[in-house]
Design brief:
alpha+beta; five-stranded antiparallel sheet; 2 helices; 5 strands
């Protein structure tokens, strides 16, 4: 992961993504095919709102008798693990929060 200014790049073997906050665009990279697609933040917002609307509709359709089950080891409570701050991760955290 690389963060520089208003841009964050995440690269893997076959794919990657560049988020450009200044242009409000996300570039999804297909490194094998050497192609990319561009999605605007407005399109991402629209998709998210559509998904929220569909989820609300599905929740209304579900039977009220449906129960949620939480699974955990008997006699154990969930734990939270904390680790020391990694200096290199400050840019990533700043990118997510401040931008």
């Amino acid at each position: 992961m690389i963060v520089k200014g208003d841009r964050k790049a995440t690269l893997g073997e076959d794919a990657g993504q560049i988020v450009d906050l200044a242009d409000e665009k996300v570039y999804d990279l297909d490194l094998k095919r050497k192609t990319y697609t561009v999605t605007t933040f407005a399109e991402l917002r629209r998709r998210f709102e559509d998904q929220q609307r569909k989820a609300a509709e599905n929740a209304r359709k579900e039977e009220p008798s449906a129960k949620q089950v939480t699974v955990r080891e008997k006699g154990k409570t969930p734990d939270m693990w904390l680790a020391p701050t990694v200096k290199a991760m400050r840019d990533v955290a700043g990118f997510k929060v401040a931008k």
